[in-house]
Amino acid sequence: MPPLPDDPSPPSPLPRPWRAWATIACLVLGLSLAFAWVAGWIGPARRLTAPRLVDDIENGKPFPGFRRAHSRGVCVAGYFEPSAEAATLSRARVFRQPRTSVQGRLSIGGGDPFGPEAQARVRSLALSLRTDDGQEWRMAMNSFPFFAVATPAGFHAQMLASRPDPATGKPDPAKMAAFLEQYPEAARFQTWAKSAPWSSSWANTEYNGVNTFRFIDAQGRARFVRWSMQPQAAFEPLADTARQQAEADYLQRELRDRLARGPLRWDLVVTEAAAGDPVDDPSQPWPASRPRHVAGTLVLERSEAQATGTCRDVNYDPTVVPDGVALSDDPILAARAAAYSVSFNRRERETARGDIAKPADSKGKEVKP
After folding, report:
1. Residues with catalytic function
2. Pairing mode, if any, of strands 292-305 and 136-142?
3. d(CA 270, CA 92)
4. Whole-model pTM?
5. Around Cβ 166, how many Cβ atoms within 10 Å?
6. What is the pLDDT at residue 166?
7. Distance (Å, rounded) from C-alpha 109 to C-alpha 72?
8. Which of 193, 197, 209, 199 is nearest to 233 (CA)?
9. Which of 84, 208, 201 is CA-nearest to residue 145?
10. Pure H helices in the chain
11. Which among 210, 345, 368, 220 has a CA at the least distance from the CA of 283?
């Protein structure tokens, strides 16, 4: 065989692994910067972040081991049964199986886990529904019918403006006036807080998911919705005198007495938006004429202390939704998820190391464990 001629083409260049390493390094750097930005470690000074928001909720006086907001409450459990109409609104599994187990939490507004329950203006209901296919739907609802402001910045400003003045024990009128001038939508909430009757029980209170979500049906059609849990128990007002004289754990005692007599029920009422309704602003209520549907019934059968109950280690993040339910562009939703996460991580670390706040005695001293 004659010898082969020499190959005239130049040799192939050696592989350059540094290019791959450089790409990976850029990705890691980018993710690190994004993480640092979200955490508030970089960027403009005093930028509003979830850690800063929770810091300001704590106001230098955290209650270790407890939620930073809605700190006082009890765990509850029961089930949910859908109506026949529910499956036409959304393909969510919870609307297609006969019954879904529920665990949740009833609470009051505020960051004091030992505050008097009857005097809390806001009451809340959080739920976790787990279906037989492993999906979960978490809800976080409140007794007010709409949010005070439209943005996380507005909520932060409201919190700072409403802090009691050390000299008077009440919010500074000048700061509140400046807040209302910048966020005039909050006037509607103030009117509600001053005029709405106080209910006598967690059981006869309506709880509203004031944020907008989307329901997606089996055909893939989407509609904007808000929902409420409307009590089947008749509303009973709590008079001012009774509220002032009530024991600190008034709502928990009242709840136990009611549950001893039988389960408690709420109807899940879904309201559809019409074209042009605000779907990214929870401070704007929709007209009462919008279509409403009873999508099922929540039944609560028992309660237990939050210190040892199943709700203690649950973060009721309202952005946890199943297939058939989707989020809207409401900025308050994302802010709630971020702040709840910070609060959850802080209290879980505190609980793990046994750093849990104790109630103060009548002289203001901490009671030893």
Report:
1. 70
2. unpaired
3. 14
4. 0.87
5. 6
6. 86
7. 8
8. 199
9. 208
10. 17-39, 50-58, 86-89, 152-161, 173-182, 186-195, 240-245, 250-261, 331-352
11. 210
CA distances from 11 to 4, 8, 14, 21 (A): 17, 9, 9, 24
The pLDDT assigned to 239 comes to 94
223: its two tokens: 């509609």
What is the predicted pLDDT for the residue at 9? 64
Q: Give pLDDT < 50 ranges for the chain.
A: 363-369
Q: Looking at this protein, which amino acid is placed at residue 333?
A: L
Give the integer Cα–Cα distance in Å for 74 and 143: 16
| SS3 state of residue 250 | helix
Closest CA to 71 of 57, 85, 87: 57
* pLDDT score at 28: 59
Contact 269, 297 (CB under 8 A): no
Residue 60, token pair as written in the block: 């230098």
> Tokens 């989707």 map to which residue?
326
The tokens of 242 are what?
Answer: 């009774």
Distance CA 322, CA 135 (A): 6
Give the containing element (helix H, strand E) for 103: strand 100-108
Looking at the DSSP bridge assignments, the partners of residue 70 are none
Angle separating helix axes 50-58 and 331-352, nearest 10 degrees: 60
For the chain, give the longest Cα–Cα distance.
114
What is the 3-state composition of the chain as percent helix, strand, coil, each rounded to the nearest 5?
30, 25, 45
| H or E element in which residue 224 lies | strand 222-231
In the numeric block, the tokens 């978490």 are attached to: 138
Backbone angles phi, psi at 224, to 5 degrees: -80, 135
Instruction: Identify the pLDDT of residue 47.
Output: 80
CA distance 72 to 124: 10
Interatomic CA distance for residues 107 and 202, integer angstroms: 8
